[in-house]
Amino acid sequence: MRWWDLDAVLAIEGELFPEDAWSPGMFWSELAHARGAGASRHYVVAEDAAGHLVGYAGLAAVDGTGDVQTIAVASSHWGTGLGARLLSDLLTAATAFECHEVLLEVRVDNARAQRLYERFGFEPIGFRRGYYQPGNVDALVMRLSGPAAPTAPVAQAALTSDAVPDEGADGPIDGLFDAATEQPPEHAPERAPETAPRAARETETGTHG
Length: 209
Description:
The protein has 209 residues and is of the alpha+beta class. The protein contains four helices and seven strands. A seven-stranded mixed β-sheet has the order 5-6-4-3-2-1-7, sandwiched between helices. Strand 5 and strand 6 form a beta hairpin. The longest helix has 15 residues.
């Protein structure tokens, strides 16, 4: 995921997560930590054959622990296995980050997402009461030890994390953040300190995961 993907990302974000959509500033903050030698984030987007962005996912890695931040699949691609491919990509990144475990939170009422995570080897380890607001829905915390990316079902979409457009890829355009330089514009908002990273969300069900 790069700064030029954010308009499409935010459109999917607003459609799928109207109650707790991430702000542009939260994505800016994540991308600022996704490049360079000290990178602690991995964000990827999926595009269909026509080049339209149809999904995205993100992972944070700190001190050997990976945290699935988000998985989102456009409604037009529900049921294609794209969510599984995105998760597989995050687990590959977790291995590259040398994570010894990967954690995520999923809504207790999202059985479909839980089955996906179980298929990848995640196991429940606890609950977080009232984690999802404003609905006051509990979160099931799941953990995968010793992550290795299993083969996921093939979907008709390409995952791209470093795809560069033919023009304007080497610097900021119209003052926007160029993720390749790791320098946000002065007006780019940062993630509020009190805002915790959002839990993993598998959206083939149309709900938070």
